[in-house]
UniProtKB/TrEMBL annotation, chains A, B:
Protein name: Pyridoxal phosphate transferases superfamily protein
Organism (species): Salvia divinorum
Keyword Transferase: yes
Cofactor(s) annotated in UniProt: pyridoxal 5'-phosphate
Keyword Lyase included in the entry's annotation: yes
GO molecular function, one term: carboxy-lyase activity
Length: 468, 468
């Protein structure tokens, strides 16, 4: 098999539409290859020099600066990663492939280009949010004086992930100054820029200092998308740091047709998303971009003597310990690097499209069943639905009490999950209990969606019988 | 091979004194076993129920509550961990083996018993310090009022790891209120309780609020041990939370003869150490004990609706997301669990003793070479030494200038490391540049210590020739 090149994606005879990311026999073969490499390495370890013999920049010059369109054989990848000219895998966390991922997501047209800001792979959104909160906090305290921490106000919506509040609390922001601005069904539970302005103006009037906004692309409960453009305008006016949390949904932006969801990201100061959520990376992989790395580094840097060395003193390397909470760094980039090369961009795009198509199919069935209702507009591969209150009110005259309807839906979800056949989750959105199906498992196929629908129908049938 | 039992350690025919923790052929066999298990699991995944069918407490009842003295065969361990009655590995992070580790370290005689506080495995000391700083901060703010954050003072010594300052800064403690109390050679660079008292009293006099002390067992630079007993007395008097950072050295306390180093830990509010440093665990394994888990949980808890479920509502499970920074949890306990069972306590103890013995041997050679000097008393497996300034001053009359001596030692270290045969590090301790050798690599044997000594001698010879 010829090694595919990035330049000629059409040369690759990869079946993008039928790509199977986890074929057991092939997984076994690849895993055994890696194990055997490790064993050979340790058998010969005494023959290698104790310290790496390569200098800063060595790796960057060895690998392409964009991800391949098609998959590459594991042998090539291992050769580059492990068996190359030096036996020790280079332990950088800012793989150029992260940049390649940025490029394939269309970020290079924004200020989040490799030339502008900088990127680091952290463990979770909470790490990323806490890091940027601390950077924004210290940037603002520099202006208003170090004792002003109690004046700082951070903003999110009532749909923002709880990790935002947790991060702000850890950063020492006063609990009374962490705002969760209310959203509504009218705005599809996205944060309204006008509501943000009202909240910010009220705080400024009270002598407080707005300093941070967490906007979300794909909220946890319903995958709502906050309008980055208008929110960014308000934030800019008041000197507020904007972080965009795209934890789950931003993975879809590797497909051109979904890039519109992050329009306005060029106004943001930082942006994070988790390839471990919807892009097949293993857990503990949160990509964070910041517009001004110097601000992040100033907030998080430490320079004890025992961590200094020649290359760090010459500033020839980026010390990623100063870009995150912990000083210890796991070798997180390698899983993303191997993922991008072994899948290829085209397959990743096709997988994203396949999940969204399955979600659309499921949504269509919900829409065609009169007893059910899609709770909020579907943006990605998550469908939120419920047994329709209109139906219950209108036809069966059972109840128009929201608590009763919520309990009914909770019971349906419980019995669905007790079946052991599928697993769905729930959320409370605007006081309404909704059932959520999120499609993105690496083994999920159309047949599972069919099964899910059969199970849902069966348990809705039962519930309606009991409710009648 | 019979399965060894915990009750009869003398029955085990394990060669504790020659135990090899990384025999390549055996590693290969075990790794292939695990891979094959995973492959079989995914091949049959459709036959399993989607949700775990076991309830809270299931795991705790299945496994012994203390670590075995001798090693167990990997087949038994995998059977219990993975292939047992349920195909999904239980994802608890608070393995009873953590408790077992506590027991074998002698902690059960202190307030750090399983019955008292609680434990969690985090990623790094910075995570552990930040978590406890935030808990202590919020506990104190509850007393003095939520706006008092700028009054809070945190204490460490000039030998405390920089992660303490970093953690305190992240937690919003004012940079001017993070104290690094000076240590001296007279105290072997340990933090003096008297000096702490002086600093605390001065701060109280100024209207500030002392709230946190980071004491260290085995400092980074020289493995100094802060006197936990006397420090704890001072802290108690002023209501200061004491965290004990035993990152590297506390692993030695699994041997009874080294337990004295943590005498006084019963006065501490929290304690952490990293089995990934000196106890063969993979990176990202920091064990944290807290005396009052409720305080930690109050500072770090979040309860969004989408993370609630039946068992969490009934408080039948411990939600470890509230015991750490991130909500996401890696399955960190399994590596410790497999480690403890596959090595056994006796082998772990013997390995610790073997490293300390090697360090002693190396130290003895330094002592017998008149050109060299042991810089600080050796406590564990780290030896700090330098080319003796007395010698240079007294015999060669070259210089008594500290900068000159420091540069000479720096040059020796540089040439030692450039040899590619061994790797040593440095530290500045009380203005003196010292060379450090830390022994603890899983493949390190006596022959490597001999080699290290030969290399050091060779480069000292050269340096003395040049300096003469």
């Amino acid at each position: 098999m010829d090694k595919p090149t990035n330049e000629n994606p059409e040369n690759i005879n990869s079946p993008f539409d039928t790509f199977n990311p986890l074929e057991p026999q092939e997984f076994k073969r690849q895993a055994h290859l890696v194990i055997d490499f490790l064993v050979d390495y340790y058998r010969n370890v005494e023959n290698y020099p104790v310290l790496s013999q390569v200098g800063p920049g060595y790796l960057k010059n060895r690998i392409p600066d964009s991800a391949p369109n098609g998959p590459e054989p594991i042998e090539n990848i291992l050769h580059d990663a492990l068996i190359g000219s030096h036996p020790r895998p280079p332990r950088s966390s800012r793989t150029p492939y992260w940049i390649g991922l940025g490029k394939c997501s269309g970020y290079q047209s924004t200020s989040f280009s490799p030339e502008g800001g900088g990127g680091v792979i952290q463990g979770s959104t909470c790490d990323a949010l806490l890091s940027t909160l601390v950077a924004a906090r210290d940037k603002t305290l520099k202006k208003i004086g170090g004792n002003g921490i109690n004046k700082l106000v951070a903003y999110g919506s009532d749909q923002t992930h709880c990790t935002f509040r947790k991060g702000a609390q850890i950063a020492g922001i006063h609990r009374d100054r962490i705002r969760a601005i209310r959203t509504s069904k009218a705005n599809a539970f996205a944060l309204s820029a006008e509501d943000l302005r009202v909240a910010v103006e009220a705080d400024v009037k009270s002598g407080l200092v707005p300093f941070f906004l967490c906007a979300t692309v794909g909220t946890t409960a319903s995958a709502a998308v906050d309008p980055l453009g208008p929110l960014g305008e308000v934030a800019k006016e008041f000197g507020i740091w904007v972080h965009v949390d795209g934890a789950y949904a931003a993975s879809a932006c590797i497909c051109p047709e979904y890039r519109g969801f992050i329009n306005g990201v060029e106004n943001a100061d930082s942006f994070s998303f988790n390839p471990h959520k919807w892009l097949f990376a293993g857990l503990d992989c949160c990509c964070l971009w910041v517009k001004e790395p110097a601000v992040l580094v100033e907030a998080l840097s430490t320079n004890p003597d025992y961590l200094r060395n020649k290359v760090s003193d010459l500033k020839k390397v980026v010390d990623y310990k100063d870009w995150q909470i912990s000083l210890t760094r796991r070798f997180r980039s390698i899983k993303l690097w191997i993922l991008l090369r072994s899948y290829g961009v085209a397959n990743l795009q096709q997988l994203i499209r396949r999940y969204i198509k399955m979600a659309k199919d499921f949504e269509l069935r919900i829409k065609t069943d009169k007893r059910l209702e899609v709770a909020v507009p579907r943006n990605f591969s998550t469908v939120c639905f419920l047994i329709s209150p209109i139906l219950i009110r209108g036809e069966n005259q059972v109840s128009d009490d929201q608590t009763w309807i919520n309990n009914l839906n909770a019971k349906v979800l419980e019995s669905v999950n007790e079946s052991g056949k599928i697993f769905m989750t729930h959320a409370m959105i605007g006081g309404v209990y909704v059932i959520r199906i999120a499609i993105g498992g690496s083994l999920t196929e159309n047949k599972h969606i069919n099964l899910a629908w059969e199970v849902v129908k069966e348990h809705v049938d039962k519930a309606m019988l009991l409710a009648a």
